Amino acid sequence: MDTFDLIILGGGAAGLMCAASAPKKIKTLIIEANPTLGRKIQISGGGKANITNQFISTKFYRGDSSFIAPSLKNFTCKDSLDFFNGIGLEQRDKGKLFGKKSAQEFIDRLIDRIDTKDILLNTTITDVSFKDGYFLLDSLNKSFTCKRLVVATGSLAWPKAGAKESGYLIAKSFGHKVISPSPALVPLTLQPSEFWMKSLSGISFEVAAKLLDRSFCDWLLFSHRGLSGPLIMDLSLFWQKGLVSFDFWPRGSVKRVLQTKSKKLISSSIPLPKRFVKSFLNAVGLEDKPINRLTCKEEKILQKLHNYTFAPAGTLGFVKAEVCKGGISTDEIDSKTMQSKLQKGLYFIGEVLDVTGCLGGYNLHWAFASARQCAKNLG
Ligand SMILES: Cc1cc2nc3c(=O)[nH]c(=O)nc-3n(C[C@H](O)[C@H](O)[C@H](O)COP(=O)(O)OP(=O)(O)OC[C@H]3O[C@@H](n4cnc5c(N)ncnc54)[C@H](O)[C@@H]3O)c2cc1C
Question: Of 86, 89, 148, 361, which one is least surrounded by beta carbons within 10 A?
Answer without folding.
Answer: 86
